[in-house]
Known about the structure:
Blueprint: H1 2-25, E1 35-36, E2 46-48, E3 54-58, E4 61-65, E5 73-77, E6 84-92, E7 96-102, E8 111-117, E9 123-130, E10 133-138, E11 153-160, E12 165-170, E13 173-179, E14 196-199, E15 211-220
Antiparallel strand pairs: 1-15, 2-5, 3-4, 4-15, 5-14, 6-11, 6-15, 7-8, 7-14, 8-9, 9-10, 11-12, 12-13
Amino acid sequence: MARCFQFSISVFLLCFLVIADLSAAEVKTDLSGFVPLFDGKTIDGWHKLTEGGAWRVIDKAIVGDQYPEGHGGLLVTDKYYSDYEFYAEVKCTYPLDTGIFLRIPSTREHFQVTIDFRPTGEIGAIYGPFPNGGGFFQHCYEGVTWWDPNEYNPVKVRIEGAVPRIQVWIRDHKVMDYQDTPVDGRPRFPRAGPVGIQVHPGQSWGKGSKVSFRNLMIKELER
């Protein structure tokens, strides 16, 4: 009788843990106030900032690939945005190097949230141009631990301020909180610019790799 009771308790606890885990997995980002940036059918409202790369709409997602082989590119919104929250669900094959570009004008001065799904890559880091090339403003070693390689991953980014604070969530887990600093007493980059998504050129993009972005949305913040 005691063994039977212990078995029943064990089964109950196991079921409780399974239900709790499923409940946690079903937590969804609060998207109140967001508006779509993508209609699920066309790339209306977006344009190529660079000539390389191929962008297609497949199964209600914007899918990016190198084209010609080895050549990447940027797809950006027609509209400029300043302070906002951006949301997208992202799925990547392995290996590749992509990202979300914030306030990126034609002069290419911008902040980037990395989605480098490859060896030594970082997901959720803040990257951008420096006088002698690109570099990290802040690393993120935690982001990859929340990344599901087999599913779409909810990503939310918040940028606000002329000298911006940038926060990043992966699957509702906050993985980045970066505060930029002025350069010579002025903001480092322009206050406004398009939102962009990337196909990286070169060997960091594995042959046949693809990135998919769906449910792209934005919520503008009061300045």
